[in-house]
Specification:
Elements (H helix, E strand, L loop, with lengths): L2 E4 L11 E8 L3 H16 L8 E9 L4 E8 L2 H10 L1 H11 L4 E14 L11 E9 L4 H17 L7 E9 L4 E8 L2 H9 L10 H7 L4 E17 L1
Helix pairs in contact: 1-3, 4-6
């Protein structure tokens, strides 16, 4: 199978059993661009691996240092098979082009709930905001209950953020984390939403306060990325 290129993954793609998320630290904006180019060459010059890989996407961190990798698989066994048979050759070519890449934090997730674009919304995402929260110890029901609380807060927010397009809430398979893959019109739209009244994204409502002070929530982080490359079977 050949490789098809785009810039963004289909978050609600059918048949996805697990999503693998990781980061590479490369150091500078120039090395970010060079790494994305090397990834594109390494993948386009080879047939698409027939291991249950549905898509592989790369986003450029607006910190000028990191790359986010978001890949969709039929299941964890498919990812393990790819790692055994195809990953090293591709990474070796990428490392030869951009030496010194630091690979960190590979985690498996499952998509739990998504807030899709409104009907007729044709805006193109220019920024992806990754929101991660961590809980004290594993608890699958707590992960999902927290996400449900976010949806309640969104539904009752009197002043929704105008630059938000969609969101995909993923729960880690170890029961400890939630990752929101949120698409925004621009980075500035997200910055403006953070600067609005309230604590972070969302109005100063009781529903948002419940989200922000949820029992067992121990840490949270927000990072912004620019879509760079999305590959799938052609």
């Amino acid at each position: 199978m050949s490789v098809r290129s785009g810039t963004l993954p289909e978050i609600t793609r059918p048949g996805v059993g697990v999503v693998m998320v990781s980061r590479w630290r490369v150091g500078t904006p120039e090395r970010q661009r060079a790494t994305v180019e090397a990834i594109g060459r390494a993948w386009r010059s080879r047939e698409w691996p027939d291991t249950g890989l549905l898509s592989y996407s790369v986003l450029t961190g607006n910190d000028g240092n990191t790359l986010l990798h978001y890949s969709q698989w039929s299941g964890v066994e498919a990812h393990a098979e790819f790692a055994r048979t195809f990953r090293d050759e591709r990474n070796a070519e990428i490392d030869a082009a951009v030496p010194g890449i630091e690979r960190v934090g590979l985690r498996p997730y499952e998509l739990y709930r998504s807030a899709d674009p409104a009907e007729g919304d044709s805006r193109v995402p220019g920024c992806v905001v990754i929101v991660e929260v961590e809980f004290e110890g594993p608890g699958a029901e707590r992960q999902k209950a927290w996400v449900d609380a976010v949806f309640e807060a969104l539904a009752s927010d009197p002043v929704p953020a105008p630059g938000a397009i969609s969101a995909g809430f993923h729960v880690s398979t170890d029961g400890t984390r939630v990752l929101n893959y949120a698409q925004w019109v621009t980075e500035q739209a997200h910055i403006d939403a953070l600067a609005a009244p309230g604590d972070g994204i969302g109005s100063a409502t009781e529903q948002w306060r419940r989200v922000q002070n949820y029992p067992g929530l121990t840490a949270s982080s927000v990072t912004r990325y620019t879509p760079a490359l999305s590959l799938s079977a052609g």
